[in-house]
Sequence to fold (152 residues):
Amino acid sequence: MRTLLRLLLIFIASAVATRASAFVISRQLDEGSDASDEFRRVVIFDGIQFDSQAGGLRSGEVCVALGGAQLDLREATLDPGGATLALKNTLGGLQVLVRDDWAVTVEDEIIGGGGVEIDVTPAEDLPEGAPQLHISLLTRMAGSTISTKDER
Fold:
């Protein structure tokens, strides 16, 4: 019984230390604020909601590992030259919300299962010169959604 209790305490201590370390590391890697035109968010064993209000969004990077993230870009304005997002999702959940008047292109790669759902306005339904957002998405055994609608 004592051995089992010790093992349980070691397991709990390890889990707490791992989560605390992940929190510290991810916060050190984060860059930019909700008003920044360039940002990076790292999510490890955690969950975040990031609501961008950038005045000229150029680039963003989000890396999710064993966690969840919602990236809401609907209040942002894209740079006149367009914007790019690099997204990596490993064993987590990622939702990206975009405006319905943006021309969104997605290059996605799925490794080891998982799924990607893309529900954006078709290019032929947009006016010429619509703001351009290019998304590069790597999904590893995870679920990722890029949409104009928040379906939470």
Observations:
- Helices lie at 2-29.
- The first helix runs from residue 2 to 29.
- The mean pLDDT is 91.
